[in-house]
Design brief:
Elements (H helix, E strand, L loop, with lengths): L8 E7 L2 E8 L2 E4 H7 L11 H6 L3 H14 L2 E3 L5 E2 L8 E4 L4 H6 L10 E4 L4 E2 L5 E3 L6 E2 L2 E7 L15 E8 L2 E2 H4 L6 H5 L4 H5 L5 E9 L10 E6 L2 E7 L7 H9 L9 E3 L20 E6 L3 E9 L1
Parallel strand pairs: 6-17, 8-14, 9-19
Antiparallel strand pairs: 1-2, 1-5, 1-14, 2-3, 3-4, 6-7, 10-13, 11-12, 11-17, 12-14, 15-16, 15-18, 18-19
Length: 308
């Protein structure tokens, strides 16, 4: 018997001060736990987050019960929901530098011969509509729209041909970058000689918006043919397609899992196309700006910029 595809959009939202799990169906969101209790779905009653759904291998259970949840549950407009990041406590946030051909062209760089990863931390993670902070120590805050891959099961030394089986789904991410910290201009050449400052240049608070929800893998037949764009105050800054990736998702999973155990909820952000401010002489983000990163078949991640 052919397996039924897992077609789901899962979101975290806030209700009465607590984070809840919801299923997004068209323009509505349905509370997963309340409906599970009403319908005596024992395996879902105690689930508190999408992280727990992934670690408990419960996507299949939710898939099987989704028609009951969305047809019999009481939904409300998703646009009225206060959304949080679709992953709350990832063990790892891994990002790929210069993984789009166009992004290499705009900085006159030779494409890398193998994936180049850097990391962010839990402090960087925010959801849709949460503020991107301009810190007191940076005046050059930049954007990078990216396709984020969320890992769904534990694996290490994963071969490329099996890599997609470890993907739970996708979200939109924005690799907020602090260019005056990333690219040191200090007269002290010791810092410059060590290369880019990835921790300070990429890892400050609120520098990794993720959302607006998790779209499960089977809903997107080809993640390497998705339109990806970013607007600031309605003006298009980036406009490309994920087919421009140099290293595809299966290659990235194989590469990063070599010697490193990937776990459910880990995030791999797959790089950005051309159009970032630092390489195009555009103005950096300022207080009050509205940033919208969009990927077809997933949705729009919207954040307002605010001075810290």
């Amino acid at each position: 018997m052919q397996e039924v595809a897992v077609i789901l959009k899962l979101a975290h939202y806030v209700k009465n001060g607590a984070v809840r799990v919801g299923i997004v169906d068209n323009a509505n969101i349905f509370d997963l736990i309340e409906t599970a209790k009403e319908q005596a779905l024992v395996s879902l009653k105690e689930i508190g987050s999408i992280d727990e759904i992934l670690s408990g291998d419960l996507l299949g259970t939710i898939r099987d019960t989704q028609p009951n949840i969305t047809s019999r549950g009481e939904g409300f407009p998703v646009e009225s929901a206060k959304l949080c990041s679709p992953i709350l406590n990832p063990e790892k946030i891994l990002l790929v530098a210069r993984n789009y051909l166009s992004h290499n062209v705009e900085q006159n760089a030779k494409p890398p011969s193998e994936p180049y990863f850097f990391t962010k931390f839990r402090n960087a993670l925010i959801g849709s509509n949460e503020p991107i902070l301009i810190p007191k120590i940076s005046a050059k805050v930049d954007w990078e729209a990216e396709l984020a891959v969320v890992i769904g099961k534990t694996g290490k030394n994963i071969p490329r041909e099996d890599a997609m089986e470890y993907v739970a789904g996708y979200a939109v991410s924005n690799d907020i970058s602090f260019r005056d910290l990333q690219f040191s201009t200090r007269s002290d050449n010791a810092a410059v000689a060590l290369g880019s400052n990835w921790v300070k240049g990429k890892g400050l608070d609120s520098s990794f918006p993720l959302g607006p929800w998790l779209v499960t893998r089977d809903e997107i037949s080809d993640p390497h043919n998705l339109d990806i764009s970013l607007k600031v105050n309605g003006e298009t800054k980036q406009d490309s397609n994920t087919r421009d990736m140099i290293f595809k998702i299966d290659t990235l999973v194989e590469y990063v899992s070599a010697g490193m155990t990937l776990r459910p909820g880990d995030i791999i952000s797959t790089g950005t196309p051309e159009g970032v401010a630092v390489f195009t002489d555009q103005k950096f983000l300022k207080n009050g700006d509205v940033v919208e990163a969009k990927i077809s078949k997933i949705g729009t991640l919207r954040n307002t910029v605010r001075l810290e």
